[in-house]
Design goal:
The protein contains eleven helices and eight strands. By secondary structure, the protein is of the alpha/beta class. Helix 1 packs parallel to helix 3, helix 4 crosses helix 5 and helix 8 runs parallel beside helix 9. It starts with a strand and ends in a 5-residue tail after the last helix. The structure holds erythose-4-phosphate. Erythose-4-phosphate binds next to helix 7.
């Protein structure tokens, strides 16, 4: 399973990339706004830190302008993945960019039928938003299962399931159990994955016992 980080904060990306766990990055207009930086500048910097796909989202809503924006974003670096919303204009743009050899991430997916459309439009990634569905009292993970089943029913569809809007480590575990291809994790959730109270307690006890031996490995 690939791990992407869901942030436009380059300090966080650099820090997490050093763990060797970061296979890519996703950004969106809200994350870029939060960074307070120039979009093109921050995108270029992220693409230099991470070799894998870096999602950069268009902000136009009509096909022609989306396509122009997508082409401009794709020129920033060879690992840019253009992110388009799941609308008819977005799907049309996805097809055009994909036919031109650009990787496309279709975002804001909230139904299995939308995911099927994205795959038919040649999306490299589909981004179903699990947390936002859970926020409404719906079951985000049920959507991931449905998309997995549909994509597996039609092996010619090569779109990867990129689970987005992840809020907790449980979302990640469930995504992995279902067989999602990618999870995009906020930095704090990625860090939490290594935490366990028994790991901390066990390590503390091992070190206390080691201290009593008076030995040192180095
Ligand atoms: C990533 O591609 C999405 O834009 C992001 O995961 C959305 O997360 P949110 O629902 O927490 O804003």
């Amino acid at each position: 399973m690939k791990f992407f980080v869901d942030t436009a904060d380059t300090d966080e990306i650099r820090d997490l990339a050093a763990t060797g766990m970061v296979d890519g990055v996703t950004t969106n207009p809200s994350l870029v706004a939060k960074s307070g930086r120039d979009f093109m500048e921050v995108l270029k910097e992220i693409c230099e830190i991470v070799d894998g796909p870096v999602s950069a989202e268009v902000t136009a809503t009509d096909h022609e302008t989306m396509l122009a924006e997508g082409r401009k974003l794709a020129k920033v670096a060879s690992n840019v993945t253009v992110k388009v919303p799941l609308t008819w204009d977005g799907l049309k743009t996805c097809r055009a960019l994909s036919d031109a050899g650009t990787q496309v991430n279709v975002t804001l997916c909230f139904s299995a039928n939308q995911a099927l459309l994205a795959a038919k439009a040649g999306a490299t990634f589909i981004s179903p938003f699990v947390g936002r569905l859970d926020d409404l009292g719906l079951d985000g993970m049920e959507l991931i299962s449905e998309i997995r089943t549909i994509y597996d029913n039609y092996p010619a569809l090569s779109t990867e399931i990129l689970v987005a809007s992840i809020r907790t480590p449980i979302h990640l575990k469930q995504s992995a159990l279902i067989g999602a291809d990618v999870a995009t994790l906020p930095p704090d959730v990625l860090r939490k994955l290594a935490n366990h109270v028994l790991t901390d307690k066990g390590l503390e006890a091992f070190l206390a016992d080691w201290q009593k031996t008076g030995q040192a490995i180095l």
